[in-house]
Amino acid sequence: MADPFAKLILPDQKEAIQLPIKEGSLGPKVIDISSLSNHGIFTYDPGFRSTASCDSNITFIDGDLGILLHQGYSIEDLADHSDYLEVCYLLLQGELPNAQQRAIFEHKIKNHTLVHEQLSKFFNGFRRDAHPMAVMCGVVGALSAFYHDSLDIKNPEHREICALRLIAKMPTLAAMCHKYSIGQPFVYPRNSMTYSENLLHMMFSVPSNDDLPNPVLVKAIDKILILHADHEQNASTSTVRLAGSSGANPFACIAAGITALWGPAHGGANEAVLKMLHEIGDVKHIGKYIERSKDKNDTFRLMGFGHRVYKNFDPRAKVMRQTCHEVLSELNKQDDPLFKIALKLEEIALQDDYFIQKKLYPNVDFYSGIILNAIGIPTNMFTVIFSLARTVGWIAHWTEMISAPGLSISRPRQLYTGEKNRPFIAMQYRD
Ligand code: ACO
Question: Is 0.85 surpassed by the pTM of this model?
Answer without folding.
Answer: yes
